[in-house]
Design a protein that fits this description.
9 helices, alpha+beta, OB fold (Dihydrolipoamide Acetyltransferase, E2P), 22% strand
Length: 341
């Protein structure tokens, strides 16, 4: 979340004003060999990068709290308007290019901590986990212990889960099954029967099949004859094989989707049932790395069932790799938030 301006001034503050106790000592050689010089410079660089990273993390906490406070004040001024808070988060999500879930955390952060918490003690990732503790006394105790013992985010999350008595079963998403791949619906567009392939792509129904099928029929391609045949049941449509080409973040990726009939489309796909942390956060980077690892199995081949289109025009889909749902694995690792069904 830190802006470019912040990072620029941070660099100025760290490097532009030397603060040596003895100015003459800075010009006196402290290393004799080139190898010692190289080692010393690398140590200096590592220490500098650590200070910069710590300062950026502090700023993330401050920015989250101040942003949440602004949103909360605005909602309170308009609290008489039904569902106004939800609509504000939806609009901010579009204008700020942030997920509603992350904005919800930011708003909850300001409401949970009326006074800005010490930013230099814990990171934004720590506070996101602490927000799951509803009891203020328990939350304060975990916070103190995390600071005292130098817990990382995973240790805080484990303690939160212990307090809440959560287990893996409570984190299980409902079981989902893909539809029958390459099953299509016959629709009518401009007085012509067409095969609906999904994603706004329609294929003219061949003349030889025009008398065999009618609007609303469900069909599939017979692998042996490559002819269209009727399907009696109405299975979920738009289930296709695809190949992942790029992972964007912890819940979004690009894929080449084989629609059948020799047609392949490139689409940006979003997982339907979870929301991953923002990519600019440490959690978000970890979620992206894990999703990349999962989707790279079986040479990037996946099975996906397109369900809807989100506000950004991306297909929302259920995704399986080697028969296993992708979102459940991310949720088991604590790298996603379950969205309401």
């Amino acid at each position: 979340m830190p802006t470019t301006r912040f990072v620029f001034f941070l660099f100025l503050s760290l490097f532009s004003v030397p603060s040596f106790a003895n100015p003459e000592a800075s010009t006196k050689p402290s290393v004799q060999t080139y190898e010692e010089l190289l080692h010393a410079i690398r140590e200096t660089r590592a220490a500098s990068e650590a200070r910069i990273e710590a300062a950026v993390e502090e700023e993330k906490v401050r920015e989250a709290w101040e942003t949440g406070k602004l949103i909360n004040q605005h909602i309170l001024l308009n609290e008489k308007r039904a569902q106004y808070g939800k609509r504000v988060l939806q609009r901010l999500s579009l204008d700020l290019v942030m997920s509603e879930t992350e904005l919800g955390y930011i708003l909850q952060f300001a409401r949970t901590y009326p006074i800005s918490p010490p930013a230099e003690k814990l990171s934004w990732a720590h506070y996101r986990e602490l927000l799951s503790i509803n009891n203020p006394k328990e939350r304060q105790e975990v916070t103190k212990q995390a600071v005292r013992e130098g817990w990382n985010r995973e240790q805080v999350r484990d303690e939160v889960r212990r307090l809440q008595g959560r287990n893996q079963e409570s984190l299980m998403l409902p079981e989902i099954t893909p539809g029958t791949p390459y099953t299509y619906s016959i629709i009518r567009l401009k007085d012509r029967l067409k095969i609906d392939l999904g994603f706004g792509i329609y294929l003219d129904l061949p003349e030889k099949d025009a008398k065999k099928f009618k609007e609303g029929d469900i069909v599939r391609v017979d692998p042996s004859s490559e002819a269209l045949v009727s399907v009696i049941a109405r299975p979920p449509l738009f289930t296709y094989n695809a190949t992942v080409t790029q992972v964007v973040d912890g819940d979004t990726f690009h894929a080449l989707i084989n629609l059948g009939f020799g047609i392949t489309v490139a689409q940006r796909v979003r997982l339907r049932r979870i929301d991953a942390p923002e990519i600019l956060t440490a959690d978000g980077k970890e979620a992206k790395a894990v999703l990349e690892k999962i989707l790279s199995r079986d040479q990037g081949r996946i099975l996906m069932k397109s369900v809807d289109i989100d506000q950004h025009g991306r297909p929302i889909a259920d995704v399986w790799v080697q028969g296993k749902p992708v979102d459940q694995e991310l949720l088991d690792l604590g790298l996603g938030v379950s969205l309401s069904e």
